Amino acid sequence: MNKKIWFGLGFSAIVIATAMSVPKNVVASDHDDGETSTKGRNVNLTDLYVFREKDQNAGAKDDDLVFVMNTNPRSVARQQYYFSNNAQYEFHVSRVANKDDIPTGKEDITLRFEFSKPEGNAQQTFRLTAEANGRKIGSERGTTTPLSKDPKSAPKVNDLKIGNSKISVFAGLREDPFFFDVEQFFRVRAGAAGIGPKVGFRPANEAIDFAKGYNVNAIVVRVPRSFLQGKSKANVFDVWETISTRDPRTGRYNQVERLGRPAINEGLIVTNAFLNAFNSIPPRKDLSDAAAPVRAEAKNTLLALGNSSERADTLLAAFLPDVMRIDTTIPSGYLNALNGKGSPIAGRMLLDDTIDQTLSVLTNGAVKSDNVSYNGSGPSQGHQPLVPQFPYLAFPN
Q: Is the peptide bond before 177 cis (omega within 30 degrees of 0)?
């Protein structure tokens, strides 16, 4: 198959809702699906990044990986935001025997973060609990980095011992690294769907990066590959992240957010019931009979966009289950490598332009870019430089 074929997948999911019957007044995005009485922004996932640390920092150890979970989108500058003390923030990891294997969604390793209420100094205490195959293997406490009068002050990096491994954790506000002209994409999509005028993306000097100037609550973890391997020799891993909130009536935690590959839910227009259902299931259920209607809608959308039935099936096979796969034997980067099914298998770096990488295929080459970049020169673009050391995300605004 064409190696570029996969990269329309994120946006194939975005357009699923165009083919569905949804209320006209409901607009939702997984990068920012708003704040409701049951799900505030601090339990709203934005992005997942997974990469070998040495590909971000040449001086880092060969064995270390970095996981980044960003939440609480569009946090305004110079304002303190907190992690929920009624939620569990989790990274999930499956060991993969062969890079071409279909993801199983098996939770070989889970890293769970639970936060206290904010203290008087705006700091929160967190507990990291690590599980292997559902069994606890260690638990340690750390603290967040509160917003300082000098946002460029040194972050608190917690070096925690889990078993025989050291896991480093940063938790606090950083600048949102995502970049995308979301507003114009809505217009482009509406035109493609025949419910608005046909327009293209704005030129670079007019394009607007909707994340410019905003912060996120970030959890950044440095974890040795050997810790993830356990007694196996796995060098390929599937990673996804979830947030679960506590039901005050039962005391049980219910999953309300899930994210793997970038852009799959970004800009998704759906009923709240559909969005909540998608976010509440694990990857292992993505290929279940219960999810068949969503897969059917996805295929119909791909057909409507001009794809053949065979190509649509190939795209769907690469798209689901929704996890971030990383082959740790090769350099990290979203476009760096694909497996035999056309799925990216090299994680995601902080500066990867995953939006441009999807646009070209979704539009069969008609659109190659939204004309927004991390270091864009337009008046409504541009992010602060990444920091050279862990946690790597730019200082908060």
A: no
Q: Indicate the pTM of the whole model.
A: 0.89
Residues 6+ apart with CB under 8 A from 390: 53, 57, 66, 157, 168, 170, 220, 222
End-to-end distance of the chain based on CA atoms, in angstroms? 43
In the beta sheet, which residues pair with residue 127?
A: 114, 141
pLDDT in tens, 281-316: 899 988 888 777 777 776 776 676 567 888 778 777
Cβ–Cβ under 8 Å, residues 215 and 176: yes
Q: CA–CA separation, 362 vs 170, rounded Å?
A: 36
Q: Is the peptide bond between 321 and the residue preceding it cis, with omega within 30 degrees of 0?
A: yes
319 pLDDT tier (thresholds 50, 70, 90): confident
Q: What is the overall mean pLDDT for the chain?
A: 84
By the 8 A CB rule, do 25 and 364 touch? Answer: no
Listing DSSP states for 236-253 in one string gives EEEEEEEEEEE-TTT--E
Tokens (6 digits) for 42 = 């601090």
Phi-psi region of 87 (alpha: psi -120 to 50; beta: other; left: phi over 0): beta
